[in-house]
Specification:
The structure is a single chain. The chain is an alpha/beta fold. It folds into two domains: about 230 residues, 3-Layer(aba) Sandwich (Rossmann fold), CATH 3.40.50; about 60 residues, no CATH class. About 35% of the residues lie in helices and about 20% in strands. It has 13 helices and 14 strands. Strands 7-8-2-1-12-13-14 form a seven-stranded parallel beta sheet, with helices on both faces. A three-stranded antiparallel beta sheet has the order 10-9-11, with helices on one face. It has a two-stranded antiparallel sheet with strand order 3-4. The longest helix is centred in the first third of the chain and has 17 residues. The two termini are about 25 Å apart.
């Protein structure tokens, strides 16, 4: 099935969702599946010895053995602040995980930027990612940085191929009065997007907000039980660490905010998954890309296979049932190119 058949579906859709998996970030150099925890072990042998994980890592020469090592690493992570801090700091220092870099933009693919713009411009009502990396968010920061430079004016962006895209101010911001006594000339521009990763984020949902459902969390965020939204504390930027008192809620300590390999979301932020399922049930089309649906992600695949109009864009069909979805052989770059004319 060619990608051209998907585009009319999106043009007429009233409520579309886009789910992005690890495959869309592979070209950035981010390992897929168990390669990430295996690489962490390679760079931290002393820490693995300390937590009695080294032998499992050293002998992990099959997928089953990698899975055993990864599960042991996850179990040790839960109870060791030292391991939590080391793993998160190691991931924070991986350049590809950080995403957009204005100094080398021309060398970085535009796929994530195009997905962001398609979402901000309403082609997709929901943007969902299982990825830990910060690529989607880094491009969002880039878009808003450009928007803040010319308040109340359309934002102009240029893709690597020279194509210029305009985003209207009203699609990026809504205006709040600074307080009830202010005049309409004294407004605060509030971004129309926020992150939903934990149950504490759910009350922040508003009709005028674009939700970025980051359902497996991120190694870049630290949060106490009361922290919510995109303004979470960041490990490197805010110079905070796991176990530190929360700057906003000093009676609570900061902890990691990630859901691990094969750790199903209904075993962790259950309310987030239930809320997302409710939203997906209202959509008239779901587009999935870079997501094999195998292993611990089966619970997501099973929900999407039951949706009446799910489209999968992947190099191969993976674990998906071809009778339950519309399959298109392609990559994240192919999907991004197909979406570009709609922007």
């Amino acid at each position: 099935m060619p990608l051209e058949e998907l585009i009319p579906q999106l043009e007429f859709a009233q409520n579309a969702a886009l789910l992005l998996g690890a495959g869309i970030s592979y070209d950035w150099g981010i390992p897929i599946g168990y390669r990430l925890p295996m690489n962490f072990g390679k760079h931290n042998p002393k820490l693995l010895h300390k937590h009695h994980l080294y032998d499992l890592w050293e002998t992990a020469n099959t997928r089953a053995a990698e899975e055993r090592y990864t599960k042991a690493l996850v179990n040790a992570f839960r109870s060791s602040e030292v391991l939590q801090s080391a793993l998160l700091q190691w991931m924070n220092k991986q350049p590809a995980m950080l995403g957009y870099n204005p100094e080398i933009k021309s060398k970085q693919p535009d796929d994530h930027l195009i997905f962001d713009i398609a979402w901000l411009k309403g082609i997709f009502n929901h943007l969902i990612t299982t990825n830990w990396d910060f690529i989607l968010e880094s491009y969002l920061y880039y878009i808003y940085w450009e928007a803040y430079a010319n308040p109340f004016m359309p934002t102009h962006l240029q893709l690597n191929n020279g194509v210029e895209i305009e985003i209207d101010y009203a699609l990026l911001f809504f205006n709040d009065l600074l307080n009830e006594t202010e005049t309409e000339d004294e407004l605060m521009s509030t971004p129309r997007w926020d992150i939903i990763a934990r149950d504490v984020d759910l009350p922040r949902q508003k009709a005028e907000l674009h939700p970025l459902w980051k359902i497996h969390g991120s190694p870049f965020f630290l949060a106490c039980p009361l922290c919510s939204g995109v303004n979470r504390w960041k490990l490197e930027i805010d110079k905070l660490d796991i176990g530190d008192p929360c700057p906003s809620h000093p009676d609570h300590t900061l902890g990691p905010e990630i859901v691990f390999w094969d750790e199903q979301i209904d075993h962790a932020p259950r309310q987030v998954w239930e809320a997302l399922q409710a939203e997906l049930s209202k959509t008239d089309i779901v587009v999935v890309c870079g997501f094999s649906g195998s292993g611990g992600d089966e619970y997501i695949r099973s929900v999407l296979e039951s949706h009446p109009n799910t489209w999968l864009v992947n190099p191969d069909i993976g674990a998906w049932n071809p009778k339950s979805i519309n399959y298109i052989k392609g990559t994240g770059t192919d999907l991004a190119k197909a979406l570009s004319p709609l922007l």
